[in-house]
């Protein structure tokens, strides 16, 4: 049998505090602290608690050079093989080996891979947890976090401030000022297919295409994209668009068409609420857009690159703003959120977490006539 360590792993020391009666009885503060190590490896399903001996043992193996065993493995290495921190060519270890090789083939910068993987939510209800903590309102936030850093800062001046001229508002200014995150969608009013298609065409369609020989094709879109790679796919959850069956779809940017996908195992609205971590105000939108970058397309150029993940996040941000403005221009409301349950979305759309996992959800549709959930419109541009 041959053995190596997994491609990427980081070890984090953690301390947890718990109630300790013996400390209280002996005059202490009743608290005890436990320190331990966790292994964070992106090819594994979750984090793993490990002993110091196990951590040191992992470091003795190369990630690239296989060691051929001439005698039985020691008990520590055996456990590391079982949990997938060590990789072997034995048939019994194939699942961990496949996961590690799959991860390796994607050329992640390891810190970004760990961040991406560990930040995924699985069945989190962010609304309930904020309500429980009392941080769903400003008074509660102030109570638990104190005052925020100020909205603007004053740097030390090297000379007198230079006042800039104000301009006469033009049509773009009016569009920009009407862009307000919509949390109140009209559930009784379906979105017409023409408006729906127009938003998708503006935001996600290829406006042009350049073939540079072989398989090298670059698309032109209305948003900028790192390396001109346009790695972000748009997956749709359609609930209420005229003439389109409710369900899951993949948007095809060159053809400007939708490809139907299998439906989730639960009613669509319930799935939308789960995907949006309990944010029912967004789940009511007639169209949800899941922004899911294809990591392999980005890492084809930005291989093991410290900026690649950041560039993908910026790509999604640009697409989202284009969606906001496109929808606003057509009189529709729009939103974006990063508070999403990636795991449930990956399962429903068949997206491998490290290769095509979602970054954010946006959406658009007709606004409701009344504001039940607060929106931020201090200039009264919408409400
Ligand atoms: C990256 C990002 C994440 C956001 N996440 C949420 C969210 O989870 N829930 C929500 O209600 N709004 C979310 N928003 C909307 C913001 O709350 C909103 O942009 C902010 O309050 C300013 O309001 P405006 O967009 O109307 O100007 C998000 C916005 C951005 C850009």
The number of helical elements comes to 15
Mean pLDDT: 97
Bound molecules: flavin mononucleotide
Using only C-alpha atoms, the radius of gyration works out to: 25 Å
Number of strands: 14
Major β-sheet strand ordering: 11-10-9-12-14-13
Helix share, percent = 25-40%
- What percent of residues are in strands? 15-25%
The biggest beta sheet is recorded as: 6 strands, antiparallel
| Structural shape | globular
| Oligomeric state of shown chains | single chain
Order of helices and strands: EEHEEHEHEHHHHHHEEEEEHHEHHEHHE
Summary keywords:
single chain; alpha+beta; 6-stranded antiparallel sheet; 3-stranded antiparallel sheet; 15 helices; 14 strands; binds flavin mononucleotide
Write up what this structure looks like.
The mean pLDDT is 97. The protein starts with a strand and ends in an 18-residue tail after the last strand. With 383 residues, it is an alpha+beta fold. Helix content is 34%, strand content 20%. Helix 2 (52-59) crosses helix 3 and helix 9 packs antiparallel against helix 13 (308-329). The chain has a six-stranded antiparallel sheet. Strands 5-1-6 form a three-stranded antiparallel sheet. It is globular, with a radius of gyration of 25 Å. Strand 7 and strand 8 form a beta hairpin. Flavin mononucleotide is lined by residues 180-181, 183, 279, 336-339, 376.
Outline of the structure:
This protein is α+β, with helices and mostly antiparallel strands and 383 residues long. It is built from 15 helices and 14 strands.
């Amino acid at each position: 049998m041959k053995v190596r360590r997994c491609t990427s792993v980081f070890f984090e020391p953690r301390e947890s505090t718990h109630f300790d009666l013996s400390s209280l009885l002996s005059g202490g503060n009743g608290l005890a602290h436990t320190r331990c190590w966790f292994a964070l490896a992106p090819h594994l399903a979750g984090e793993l608690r490990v002993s110091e001996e196990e951590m040191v043992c992992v470091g003795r193996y190369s990630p690239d050079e296989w060691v051929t065993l001439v005698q039985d493995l020691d008990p520590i290495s055996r456990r590391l093989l079982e949990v997938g921190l060590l990789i072997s060519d034995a048939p019994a270890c194939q699942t961990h080996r496949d996961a590690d090789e799959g991860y390796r083939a994607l050329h992640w910068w390891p810190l970004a891979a760990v961040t991406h993987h560990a930040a995924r939510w699985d069945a989190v209800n962010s609304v309930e947890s904020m309500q429980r903590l009392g941080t769903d309102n400003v008074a509660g936030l102030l109570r638990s976090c104190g005052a925020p850093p100020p909205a603007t800062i004053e740097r030390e001046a090297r000379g007198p401030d230079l006042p800039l001229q104000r301009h006469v508002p033009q049509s773009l200014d009016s569009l920009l000022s009407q862009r307000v995150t919509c949390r109140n969608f009209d559930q009784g009013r379906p979105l017409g297919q023409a408006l729906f298609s127009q938003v998708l065409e503006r935001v996600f369609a290829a406006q042009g295409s350049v073939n540079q020989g072989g398989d090298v094709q670059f698309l032109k879109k209305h948003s900028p994209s790192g390396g001109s790679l346009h790695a972000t796919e748009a997956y749709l959850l359609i609930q209420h668009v005229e003439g389109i069956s409710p369900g899951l779809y993949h948007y095809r940017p060159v053809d400007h068409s939708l490809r139907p996908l299998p439906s989730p195992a639960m009613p669509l609205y319930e799935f939308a609420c789960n995907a949006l971590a309990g944010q029912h105000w967004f789940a009511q939108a007639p169209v949800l857009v899941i922004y899911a970058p294809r990591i392999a397309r980005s890492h084809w150029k930005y291989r093991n690159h410290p900026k690649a993940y950041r560039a993908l996040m910026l790509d999604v941000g640009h697409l989202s703003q284009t969606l906001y403005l496109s929808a606003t221009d057509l009189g529709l409301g729009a939103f974006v959120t990063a508070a999403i349950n990636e795991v449930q979305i990956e399962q429903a759309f068949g997206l491998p977490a490290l290769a095509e996992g979602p970054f954010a959800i946006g959406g658009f549709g007709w606004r409701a006539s009344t504001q039940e959930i607060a929106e931020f419109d201090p200039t009264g541009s919408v409400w």
